[in-house]
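Figure-free illustration: sequence to structure, shown twice.
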Amino acid sequence: MCKRWDTPEFSRQTAFDLAQLPPPVALPGDAFDGLVGPWIETLSNNTYRVSPLLSGAGNQALSEPEQTAVHTAIALGFLKRRTMTLFEFGTALMHALVAKSDGALFLLAKGVLDFDHETFSAMSDTVFWFPALALQPGQQLATNPEIDFMLRLAQFRIAAASRQTDSALIIMDRALELVEQFDDEELVKPSEVTAYSLLTLPILGFSEHSCTLPTHTT
C-alpha cells in the first residue's frame, strides 16, 4: 500500500482512496495501521507522511499509467469532499496537473474562478508555484484548450493577487492564444470578453466579488 503514495503529507482518507485502485487492497484500514510507525510517520491528527526511506519508491515501482492513476485518484478524492482547505486544494491541483486529468482540472478551475480577491490572495501563498507554470508559447496546462483557458484565468488571478504583474500578463497572452483553438466558435467571443474583462481590473488588486467559498482554512 505504501508504494502507491509518494507525497509529503496525506490523510487517512487519501490512503483509502488509493487502496481502491486495482488491484484493490483488502482490509485497507488494517493494512494502513500496520504501516504507521515503521514506514508512515504521524505528523498530527489524521495527517501522515511517508518515511524518507521510501522517497521515490512510487516512481520506481509503478509504471507511468499506474502513476497517472494514482495522481488522478488523489485529485478526485479531494474533489469528492464537501469542503477543502486551501492546502488540500493546492495538493489536488498539483496531482491533477501531473496526471493531466482534464476532468479534475475542469472541476478545480470551475470552482476557483468564483473566489473573491481575498481568497486568491490567500491561495497565492499555498499555490505560489502555479503562476510560473507553462508560460512559454505552446505550453499547456491541460490537453483540452477550453479547460486550459479556464485554468489560465485562475492562474492569472492568482498571479495578479500576489503582485506577479509580468507573469500575469504573460499568462493572459497564453489564455488568448487558447481561444483561437476552440472547436466551438460560439465560445470564442464570450471567452475573449471574459479574458479582457480581467485586464480592465487593476492588475495589482482586483475589486472583490462576493461568493460562497466551498473551502475552509485550518
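We now fold a second protein in the same way, so the two outputs can be compared directly.
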Amino acid sequence: MRIDDGVAAGALVAGSPDRFGYEWERYSEIRPEYEEQFRRWTVHLEPEDWRGLRFIDVGCGMGRNSLWPMRYGAAGGLAIDVDARSLAAARRNLAEFPQLTVRELSAYDIAAVEEDAQQDAALGGFDIAFSIGVIHHLEFPEAAVRAMAKAVKPGGRVLIWVYGRENNGWIVRLLDPLRKALFSRLPIALVHHLALYPALLVSPLGICARSYSTRCCRKSRITGGVRRRSRCCVRLGCRRFGRPGSTRCPGR
C-alpha cells in the first residue's frame, strides 16, 4: 500500500506525535531501569548479539532504546521520529555516538533511506529494524511493518514490541473508551497534571512490589532449584519483569 502525501500527513497526526513530544521534552532523562525494560522488550537478543550490527530504530522518541544497542557494541545506524522535541531529546541522549544518525523521518518513509544511501554513508543496509511501543499507535501499521522489512539486508531481522491485550483487558474495556472520548480531546498539559498526581500516589506501591519480587527471585536463585525459582517468579507476577515461569531473573 502506497500512502500519498495528504493521507500520510493525516496519518502522522493520528499517531499523536505531538503528545509524545510533550512527554519526551519533559521526561528525557535516561534512567537505570530503562536498560532492564529494553532487555525485556528485546528478549530474543542478548547484549552481545548487537555487536557490529547496524540498526534502524523506528519511532525513537528520546533515544532510550537506541542507547543500549550502542553501548552493547552496535556499529551504528539510524534513529528516526517525526516530532522535533523528541528528536532534540534523542540527539542529546545519543550525542556520544557520532556513528548513529538521528533523523526526522516517518515510519512510512523508510524507503527514502535506500534512495539516500549512496549520498549518506550512515544510512541503508540495516541488520535489524526495530520499533518498540510505536507501531500500534500508527494509522497504517501494516505499511510501517512492510517498510521496516524492506529496510533490512537479506537475512536481516525485524523486531516489533507492541502493547499486549493479556492482563490489560480491563484497560481496553474501561479506560480506553474514556481516553478516546475525553482525554484525547483535552489539552495535553491538562492531561499531564490529571495523570501526574495519581501516579505520585501509586508509584511507591509499585516500587515496593518490584523490590519484594526481586528479593524473592534472588533468594530463590541461592536456595533452590528450577522448580522453586519458577514458582517464585510466577507467584509474584514476575511476568512483568521476565518471561512467565522463567528460571532466569531479569538482568541476571
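Summary for the second example: Residues 220 and 229 are 5 Å apart (CA to CA).
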